[in-house]
């Protein structure tokens, strides 16, 4: 059973005629498919300006796009790769291009996109056999498989909720499922997630620290990490904008149920290159859950985030910092990194900007992971915290 149903979209060539422009693409999912996509001339020119096709580099188009308020235009990016090196390159694009990306991502039909037979790349575009709508459904049955897999995930999202941790928003109970069935499903999920090659690890553009331990309380001296729990929320974009204004790093730990409510905020954080981790599905105390239910909680939350950002989620912060042997084993099985903290502002308790700032002011900041939560008081005090840390010549980093 597949937990992550990722796609990779490689740009093979850009072909222009007097009144038409095309992108020739290789779509990799359950199989490789060639696409011929008619796009507007402006987007084609912008892509040609940032690529050198035919050389040693490869180019992978992102499915993500965002509104660039500085240019008053839609923007997207591609990842330029050569061996083990990669670079994220941004370009402006049309609304039609954005709609086309969504159609490809969700296996929707669009008149400007021709699905070609699964054959070798670099054939001539005009003479390729085009798959029309009736045969599209026959030749690409993998779409149905994808939907079936998603349905399976949804079913387990209702069936595997722990009875002892049900809240007012829960409408189902985990009854009638044997532990053997649950365990086998979770093992299959873990195996596929850990071995997936369809989720990209982009080259960071902000200062970052790569975590090497399974459980992390601190980072190397000279660095400091600002981390924000319990989002996404109505404060996510404000916090992101403050970080962006000061050109510093930040790491967000999102709760799955909030991801479903605020997907645009998740996209906004990722489009500005900030790190995103999981903070569980419903903020339950994991140490009261079985190993299988802990695994489900983590993997389901990761999938919700990964479907939006098209990148693998490797960071995890357990609610309340609670962990046990099963949690650590889960980190190892999924190749995840647990991020705890050594500086707790207790901002949720005081809700007082001055108290929060004084706590940071009197703490040893170098090498610290600072715990904050998404709230109005954090929005208010965050500029003061950043300026204080910068005055100490500390590098404020993303965590990866």
Quick description:
By secondary structure, this protein is of the alpha/beta class. Helices cover 36% and strands 24% of the residues.
Indicate the topology.
Elements: E1 8-16, E2 21-28, E3 32-39, H1 41-50, E4 58-68, E5 73-82, E6 85-93, H2 95-105, E7 113-116, H3 133-139, H4 142-159, H5 179-195, E8 208-209, E9 215-216, E10 223-231, H6 236-246, E11 251-254, H7 256-261, H8 263-271, E12 275-278, H9 291-309, E13 315-316, H10 325-333, E14 337-339, E15 343-344, H11 347-350, H12 353-361, E16 368-373, H13 376-391, E17 395-399
Parallel strand pairs: 8-17, 9-14, 10-11, 10-16, 10-17, 11-12, 13-14, 15-16
Antiparallel strand pairs: 1-2, 1-4, 2-3, 3-7, 4-5, 5-6
Helix pairs in contact: 5-9, 6-13, 12-13
**Helix tally?**
13
SSE string, helix = H, strand = E?
Answer: EEEHEEEHEHHHEEEHEHHEHEHEEHHEHE
Strands ordered across the widest β-sheet: 6-5-4-1-2-3-7
Strand share of the residues? 15-25%
Please outline the major beta sheet.
Answer: 7 strands, antiparallel
User: Low-confidence stretches at least 5 residues in length (pLDDT < 50)?
Assistant: 1-5, 117-203
> Structural class of the secondary elements?
alpha/beta
Number of E-state strands: 17
Mean pLDDT: 79
User: Terminal Cα separation, in Å?
Assistant: 27 Å
**What general outline do the C-alpha atoms trace?**
globular
Q: Compute the gyration radius: what is it?
A: 23 Å
